UniProtKB/TrEMBL annotation:
UniProt name for this protein: Exodeoxyribonuclease-3
Molecular function as annotated in GO: double-stranded DNA 3'-5' DNA exonuclease activity; metal ion binding
Residues the record marks as site: Important for catalytic activity: D235
Sequence similarity: Belongs to the DNA repair enzymes AP/ExoA family.
PANTHER family (UniProt xref): EXODEOXYRIBONUCLEASE III
Pfam family, one: Exo_endo_phos
Swiss-Prot/TrEMBL keywords: Hydrolase, Magnesium, Manganese, Metal-binding
InterPro entries: AP_endonuc_1, Endo/exonu/phosph_ase_sf, Endo/exonuclease/phosphatase, ExoIII-like
Cofactors, names only: Mg(2+); Mn(2+)
Residues holding Mg(2+): N18, E46, D163, N165, D264, H265
GO biological process: DNA repair
Positions bearing the site annotation: Transition state stabilizer: N165
Record note on cofactor: Probably binds two magnesium or manganese ions per subunit.
Length: 273
């Protein structure tokens, strides 16, 4: 790992963030954040735009290799990956026909690591949206298991960053008692997240900071949720074990104040040495 592009840097930094509409975020500070970040790879979710809708500063900014995976439903979902390291290949979707063009998953295969951007459906109890979320989870878990096995056989690591839309434990949201029947904290969703961990993926933030509470990554725009830090931790960087062992730092880049937010989520940035 002597240099880049073409190989991984000695210290690799990766960020994940739900931008809550890339064009809207760009007007509030995302472009400046992207230019200033030390991350080598940035995974974005809820982009909500076709590449043709984006200015060059977002579609193909200087110094970045980019893959955009928009949703066939215009103005919804969408994930992107920005990488300062040239990818060997890219993949959009994970082979499940229902979700291939839903703008919820994309991969970049870098020299030693596969980095993915995931936007898991948010769900809504008692509605078709929750059914969709459950179908997605059921289809996605086998793919994660397969991806890990194939990567390890090839001597590679895997890092799936994204908005997983599940708070795994009580320490992952402020008002957990009031949300026990809410999508994102349902027992079956939390159990499913546990199966991802059982499959060998490591929540690198919890590995370094096992106690909690938080730090949270999403706060509602309603009321004083941000000011009172009444949030949810639903944005994760999930790594295969070898890469997780190399993680030295995970930081939630929480805005200094409500008016300086460019999304209702904060970037989560991990450093791997």
């Amino acid at each position: 790992m002597s240099g880049w592009p073409g190989s991984l840097p000695r210290v690799l930094k990766v960020s994940t963030v739900n931008v809550n509409g890339l064009r809207a975020a760009a007007k509030k500070g995302f472009v400046e954040w992207l230019a200033a970040t030390e991350s080598h790879v940035v995974a974005c979710q809820e982009v909500r735009a076709e590449e043709s809708d984006l200015p060059v500063s977002l579609a193909r900014p200087d110094g970045w290799h980019v893959v955009h995976a928009p949703s066939a439903a215009k103005g919804r979902s969408g994930v992107s990956l920005y990488s300062r390291i040239e990818p060997e290949s890219v993949r959009i979707g994970f082979g499940e026909p229902e979700f291939e063009d839903s703008g919820r998953y994309a991969e970049m295969h870098l020299p030693e690591v596969i980095v993915a951007s995931l936007y898991l459906p948010s769900g809504d109890v008692g509605t078709p949206r929750q059914d969709e979320k459950e179908r997605f989870m059921a289809a996605f878990l086998p793919y994660l298991e397969e991806l890990k096995a194939k990567a390890e056989a090839a001597g590679k690591h895997v890092l799936v960053g994204g908005d997983w839309n599940i708070a795994h434990a009580e320490i992952d949201l402020k008002n957990w008692r009031a949300n026990r029947k809410s999508s994102g904290f349902l027992p079956e969703e939390r159990a499913w997240f546990g199966t991802v961990l059982d499959a060998g993926y490591v929540d690198v933030q919890r590995k370094l900071f096992p106690e909690g509470p938080g730090p949270y990554t999403w706060w509602s725009y309603r009321g004083k949720a941000f000011d009172n830090d009444t949030g949810w931790r639903i944005d994760y960087l999930m790594a295969t074990p070898g890469l997780a062992e190399a993680c030295t730092s995970v930081v939630v880049e929480r805005a200094e104040s409500y008016d300086k937010r460019w999304s209702d989520h904060a970037p989560v940035t991990a450093t791997f040495a």
